[in-house]
Write a structure and sequence with these properties.
- The complex is a heterodimer of chains A (94) and B (148).
- Chain A is 36% helix and 48% strand.
- Chain A has two helices and five strands; from the N terminus they run αβββββα.
- In chain A, strands 1, 2, 3, 4 and 5 form a five-stranded antiparallel sheet that branches.
- The relative contact order of chain A is 0.12.
- Chain B is α+β, with helices and mostly antiparallel strands and 148 residues long.
- The relative contact order of chain B is 0.14.
- Classes of the chains: A alpha+beta (94), B alpha+beta (148).
- At the A-B interface, strand 1, strand 3, strand 4 and helix 2 of A face helix 1, strand 2, strand 3, strand 4 and helix 3 of B.
């Protein structure tokens, strides 16, 4: 493993499989790890669920609704501010 | 003097080791076990909660010592000992947060993932957006009235 890979790690890991009837469910998480001398930061979030039913495998992604709505709202705000600034600059030039 | 120095140095090293151990423990949060709860079964259903985890931490240590020569006359007379001092210090800080993202519901009907919506976070984002829009519109109106 290179030094860069040791400092930044973006990995998907599988948890313990839960069996219910003929269903085998394995949760998957995705973690971003950043290390620096004497410290670090870890962001771990659920990614998906692997479902095995009678030999047939399926992957169901876990969607973070709160994060998506937050990003959409902040994105909208950014677009609005940037377009407003652009319009004001254009008007001054005229 | 040397004994004191050694004691201080070993105490500082011990503290530093503990700090590094704590930082290493931080990285265990990257495992799936930190995100998914233990499955809970009842009435033919199994429930697993999935949460987002965010942890950050940093520690720092310092150690030093030094000596200063006594005044010339005093040194010649041999009455004054060398002035010396030493010290060590350390500190650290960090933060952690967690938020439920979804609930995994396993039953005979299949697997269902129910999202957990954080209304407070969405409300904060909504009012921030509304505020920035209002601010920008006011600025634009002022600029337009100046231009006309």
């Amino acid at each position: 493993m290179t030094r860069q890979e040791e400092r930044f790690k973006w990995q998907t890991m599988s948890g313990e499989t839960t069996i219910q009837g003929d269903l085998a469910v394995t949760p998957q998480s995705r973690a971003l790890t950043i290390r620096w001398p004497n410290g670090g930061w870890v962001w771990n979030r659920p990614a998906a669920v692997l479902v095995d039913q009678g030999g047939e495998q399926r992957r169901i992604p876990i969607v973070d609704v709160t994060r998506i709505v937050q990003l959409m709202l902040y994105g909208l705000s950014l677009v609005f501010v940037l377009s407003g600034l652009y319009m004001m600059i254009q008007k001054r030039r005229e | 003097m040397n004994e004191e120095f050694d004691k201080l140095a070993s105490a500082a090293m011990e503290g530093q080791e503990r700090g590094f151990e704590l930082v290493e423990k931080l990285f265990t949060v990257a495992r799936p076990g930190a995100v998914f709860s233990e499955p809970v079964s009842a009435a033919g259903r199994t429930i697993i909660t999935a949460s987002e985890v965010n942890v950050g931490m940093g520690v720092g240590f310092g150690f030093g010592g030094g000596s200063a020569s006594p005044e010339d006359e005093a040194a010649e007379e041999g009455e004054v000992e060398m002035d010396s001092g030493m010290g060590s210090g350390g500190g650290g800080g960090g933060g952690a947060s967690g938020r439920p993202v979804a609930v995994i519901d396993i039953s005979e009907d299949g697997v269902q993932i129910e999202p957990v919506v954080d209304a407070t976070k969405i409300a904060i984002a909504f009012f921030t957006t509304l505020g920035s829009m209002f601010f920008m519109l006011t600025k634009m109106r002022k600029a337009a009235s100046r231009g006309s």
